[in-house]
Structures are given as C-alpha cells and as structure tokens.
Amino acid sequence: MKKWLLRIVGVLATLLVLLVAAVWLATFHPAALQDEPVACAGAAPTLARGQTIKVMTWNIQYMAGKNYVFFSDVPSGDAPDERPSREDITTTLGEVARVIRDERPDLLLLQEVDDGAARTDYEDQLARLLPLLPPEYACHTTALYWKAAYVPHPRIHGAAGMKLAIVSKYRISAAQRHQLPLVPRDPLTQQFNIKRAMLEARLPVDGAADVVAIATHLDAFAEGSDIMERQVAALGALLDRRTAEGLPWVVGGDFNLLPSADAYQRLIGGHQVFYNPQTEIAPLYARYQAAPSYAETTGADAPRWFTYNANDPAIKAPDRTLDYLFFDKTLQLGRHYVRQQDTLRISDHMPLVAEIKLP
Fold it and tell me: Residues 6 or more apart from 130 whose CB is under 8 A from it?
C-alpha cells in the first residue's frame, strides 16, 4: 500500500510540474526593462531644433469597430459579443488609415494593436496598417503587453496578443519596454493576464538632445486595488529620470483615468465603479503640461475633450476623457484637439492630437 501511495504522489507531482511548465511556456514573461527592435525603411530624416511636430495618440480597439457590445464593455461582463467579424476589421482598418492620412501626425502612439490574437484571426494589425499609410512613416517600434498561446477565460478560449506601437516620420534610434506594476492576482491567473507597459522610443535631434516618446496603456477594471496609483507613480518616475537627464519627452495613451471628481460625478452609476472619485492622474496634472489641460476637462467645454465613446448601450454618447498627452516643460504646447466628428464609429476611443515645438 505504501509503495502505491508513493507512486500516486510521484505521478501527481510530475503532472503538477508539467502543468506549471506548460502554463509558463504558453504565457508572456517580459523583463522589467528590455530593448525592443526598431524598424526603419530607408534613410528616415532626423528632427531639428525648434521644429514643431504633431503627435497623435489613439486606442484603436484592435480594429473592432462599433458594431458590437463586447463582454468586457458592460459592468456585468455578460454582453453578447466576443470578437469582430473579419469584414468589420478590414473596414475599421481602412478608417483608421484614413484618419491618420488626413491628420498626418509626425508621431503616432497607438494602443490595443492586436498581433497573434484569435479574436482578430492571428494577424499583425500593424503590418496590415503600415502599407495603407504614406511611405514617409518610415520608422516604427512595438511592445507586447498581452500574449498567451491560450487564455482559459470562458469568453476568450484562444490565443491573445496585443501591443503598443510608435510610428514615426522621423528616425527612431532605440526603443525599450518598461514593465508597469501588475494588478494583484493569484499566481495562476497572473500568467494569463495583461501585463501593462510603457514603450519608450528615442528620436535623435540635430545638434540637440534626443526627444523621448512614450506610449502607454494603463490598467482598466482595477477597482479595489491601488494599481492605478502605482502605475502612475512608475510612469512619473520614468519621466523624472528623463527630465534629470535633460531629455525632452512626450507621453501619450489610454490612461483609463478620469481627469477630476467632476468627471466622476458625470458618469452613470454602473460605470463609476471602475474609477476612484479622487483620480490617480492628479500627480501628472500637477507636475507636467497636458493636453487636454485640467481646465479644459473641467470647464463648460469639457465635452469637446471627451475621448471615450463606450460600447455599452446604456451610454448614448461620449461621456468621459480617458486619453491624454503629457509634455516636458521645455516643449511648447500649441494647437490640440480631440478628433470627434468622424471617428465615433471607428473605435471606443477617439484620437487626441497636439502640436508641440521642440526646444
């Protein structure tokens, strides 16, 4: 009997080791800091001192479009849709390209770009997008923040792959991925979770210090934890280091944070649960230039600065600002706006655009 018990224990231990190994091999384990490849087609130009550039940040919602209510779009998590159709992905891809061609930003910061995800037919969406843009978009770099060969979620049951992307008309000399703090989860669930990050690109400037561009996408649905505060602190620490090094910087993305307590009060009750009435973004507003500014998001014209158009059918129109651009104080902020008028059916986020003058 003892011999059989030992055999059973041995078999169970072996199975456990194999399970742990399988989960580890199937999921994503980035370093705290890692270099990312940069692709540049031909001899991309270099930025010049005193040059004014246009920056656009946009969460493109994995090219899904607005014909769906995905399970994660409602507080109850029980909405009907799990993926967009191939036809809608292609249509949305064309619309994203149209807006970029029309705006012609010098620097493009994208979030929720799928790559290898079952929900979007395993395609690299950036590889599909780039041929639709003018050839002047010579350089790009990316960083994954969700990757798994299989996610055992009842509404996913397939591969995940999603990345940040920076696309530039100007030369990118280097790029790094910075891991953000993770939402507390049990050890098994954590392996399959999104691993939020900051993607940092260095753009050389003739006769001056490099400009640093950072794309990021902070956590969502993090109620009950201090993860938003810790992620903002990690971003602020990186910005402070670049400031101390004398490097001008711009950071943009989907922060999943409201600008103020007033913005919190405007939301319908079911959506307030996703946010803290005392917003964690406050330290960034206190220390840096921003587009939109705090005054713009809290004044009478606040709807002009809404960047989020929820898929939840309970919400009939854009009702909050979640996307921001922050700037080093050596940069001069010029014209800036949210392109709302013709983007409401492209993504659940609208593109935020700003012009900045380099020192």
Answer: 137, 140, 167
How far apart are alpha carbons 142 and 168 in whole angstroms? 12
Contact partners, residue 281, CB within 8 Å, separation at least 6: 232, 255, 257, 258, 259, 324
pLDDT digits (tens, 9 = 90+) for 4-28: 776 766 666 666 666 666 777 779 9
- Buried/exposed 322-353: b ≥16 CB within 10 Å, e otherwise: bbbbbbbebbebeebebbbeebeebbbbbbbb
Q: What is the pLDDT of residues 60-90, one digit of tens each?
A: 999 999 999 999 898 888 889 999 999 999 9
Q: Which two tokens stand for residue 7?
A: 């055999």
What CA–CA distances, in Å, run from 235 to 69, 84, 198, 325, 332? 31, 32, 8, 13, 21
In whole angstroms, give the CA distance from residue 74 to residue 68. Answer: 12
Kindly report, residue by residue over 222-264, the tens digit of the pLDDT: 677 899 999 999 999 999 999 999 999 999 999 999 999 999 9
State if pTM tops 0.90. Answer: yes
What is the dihedral sign for C-alpha 272, 315, 221, 283? negative
Q: Based on C-alpha coordinates, what's the Rg of the chain? A: 21
What is the CB neighbour count within 10 angstroms for residue 146? 23
* Distance separating alpha carbons of residues 339 and 56, to the nearest angstrom: 10
Distance (Å, rounded) from C-alpha 16 to C-alpha 218?
33
SS (H, E, C) 257-313: CCCCHHHHHHCCHHHHCCCCCCCCCHHHHHHCEEECCHHHHHCCCHHHHCCECCCCC
Tokens of 257: 């944070």
